[in-house]
Prior knowledge:
With 274 residues, the chain is of the alpha/beta class. Helix content is 27%, strand content 21%. It folds into 2 domains: 45-109 and 201-274, 2-Layer Sandwich (Ribulose 1,5 Bisphosphate Carboxylase/Oxygenase); 114-200, Rossmann fold (3-Layer(aba) Sandwich), CATH 3.40.50.790. Helix 2 packs across helix 8 (224-242). The longest helix is centred in the last third of the chain and has 19 residues, at 224-242.
Amino acid sequence: MRLLPFACARRCSSTLLQRIDSLTASDIDPLTRRPLKPIDDAFFIEKTDALPVKDALRSIMHDFSLFKCLRPSLSVTDIVLSVELNLKEKQLSKLPKSAKMILYPYPFKDNRRILAIVPEELIDQTREEFGADIVGSELIIPEILDDTYEVDMDFDVIIAHSALSKEITGLRKKLEKMYPVKNRRTLGEDLENMIKHHKFGQFYMYNHATPLFETEVGTTEMAVEKIEENIRDMIKQVQSDCKIVASKRDCFTECSLKCSELLPQFIDLSEYVK
C-alpha cells in the first residue's frame, strides 16, 4: 500500500476520527467492511509494483517534500531498507547473533569519538591524518584507569596498536566489552582503516525471531545517488551474511523502503542480486 502523492491528509486526526464515528451500516461495504466513499482527502491504492531503487527513492523524496509542506515542523527523517529474508527458522538461527558494523560509502550518522593508544612515533600521524579524537602512547593508560578520560563522556571507542597489546592488558577489567581485540577491529596495525571504520561505521543486527531485516540506509536530505550506493553495499553485506545458509539469488523475497509516515515503497533488487 502506498499513499498517493497528491492525496496527503490535510485534516487533523480529531476530524478524521469524528467522521469514522459517524459512519453507519449503510456507509459500509458488507463484503470488504470498508467505507463506500473516502472519509478524507487521503486514500490508498493497492500494493504498488516494485520499482527500481533509484525510481523508488525519487518517489519517496517527492512524497516526503509534499508531506513536509503540510507539516513544516517535520524534521529530516531516516530512510529504512526493509528486507524479507528467504530463510527458515533454523537458517535464521545461523545468522550473526551480535551486532555487526558496515562502513557506508556515504555515512549519515553522528561520528563516534575515538581514543587511540599508539606507539610514541605514531601519535601525530594518528591524530592529524587518521582523525582520532584523543591520542596517546602507553602513558595515557593510567589516565584512563583514573577516569581522566571516561567512556561515553570523552570517547565512544578505544583503539590500540598491536605493538602495545601487552601494555594495555591493565585496561581489560576497566573497559570490559570495549577492551581492544582483533576480531572487533579495535586492535591491529592498520590504524587508518580501523579508525575510519569505527568513527563512521553503522551498526546493524538480525532478529532471529523473524525473517524481517531492517536498517537505515540514508536520510531525506541526502542525494538519491548516495542513498542508492549505501543500499547497494548493504545488500552485498546481507548476501555475504546469508551465504552460509542460502545462495545469493535466493536471499530475499520482498524488499521495500520506508520513510517516516509514508507507506512503504516496494523495490526491485534484481540489478543488485546477480
